Amino acid sequence: MRLSKFLCVPLTVLGLACVAPLNAQSGGTIAKVNGVAIPQSRLDLVVKAATAQGQPDSAEVKNALRENLITEEILAQEAIKKKLDRNPEVVTQIDLARQGILIRAYQADFMRNNPVSDSELRKEYETVKSQMGDKEYKARHILVETEQEAKDLLAALKKGSAFDKLAGERSIDTGSKSNGGELGWSSAAVYVKPFADALTRLKKGETTSQPVQSPFGWHVIRLDDVRTAVPPSFDEVKQNMQQRVLQRKFATVVESLRKNAKVE
Question: Which residues, 6+ apart, have CB-to-CB distance to 125 below 8 Å?
Fold first, then answer.
């Protein structure tokens, strides 16, 4: 048998992997490891997942993924030799992995068989657009844990302390403190209600006179600017609208299944 057709590659103590090159596949298998065939379908699946993550669909990538599958098969065989597949914790992990795969398959099947009409998408778009409102706000905030801390910050601001300096020193919002508490341009609808209500009552340049409580803590909010909102076009957010509608429909299905299931 010619070496170019069938290569046996020793992998230290892990055993011997006999690998058929990709251009010499037969019978729907990519390799045999200690007599156990690795099916082509397994490689096809991991290649599909890799390309979905941005990897090129190239011979190099396929070969690398094939080598990974071979190594994984070797390790899985060793685990079975040690009877680790009978370990109760491992059995539970396998059951959970199987359940997760089945759930994802059910979700994918639902989405394939429940296409969203263009009219539904446009209705969703108009609903979201109306919720976003006709204004965008450029705000800053300082988030602290207690009301007293927020009151101390307001007192410091009245005495002339710089808002951005206090935000950098005192805010517990790690996402904005390094930018002086700046939150950028956003619709009020993206914020939790107490924050949004306080923000929309402010005039340009004003700071809240009292601390604002939200589920995240206590806020001191300043409104830097206001502008007319320009919503994205329908085509720009069509895919997002489709996901929103499908998620809502799937949630309804899940709720119905829960009601009809016999849970003891």
Answer: 234, 237, 238, 241
pLDDT of amino acid 78: 97
Write out the chain in H/E/C secondary structure. CCCCCCEEEECHHHCEEEECCHHHCECCEEEEECCEEEEHHHHHHHHHHHHHCCCCCCHHHHHHHHHHHHHHHHHHHHHHHCCHHHCHHHHHHHHHHHHHHHHHHHHHHHHHHCCCCHHHHHHHHHHHHHHHCCEEEEEEEEEECCHHHHHHHHHHHHCCCCHHHHHHHHCCCCCCHHHCCEEEEECHHHCCHHHHHHHHHCCCCCECCCCEEECCEEEEEEEEEEEECCCCCHHHHHHHHHHHHHHHHHHHHHHHHHHHCCCC
**Rounded distance between C-alpha atoms, residue 226 and residue 138, angstroms:** 6
Length of the chain equals: 264
The CA distance from 71 to 17, in Å, is 8
Asked if 153 contacts 170 with a C-beta cutoff of 8 angstroms, the reply is: yes
Contact 61, 50 (CB under 8 A): yes
| The pLDDT of residue 231 | 86
119 and 238 in contact (C-beta within 8 Å)?
Answer: no
Q: Which residue has the higher pLDDT, 230 or 82?
A: 82
pLDDT attached to residue 129: 87
pLDDT at 36 exceeding the cut of 90: yes
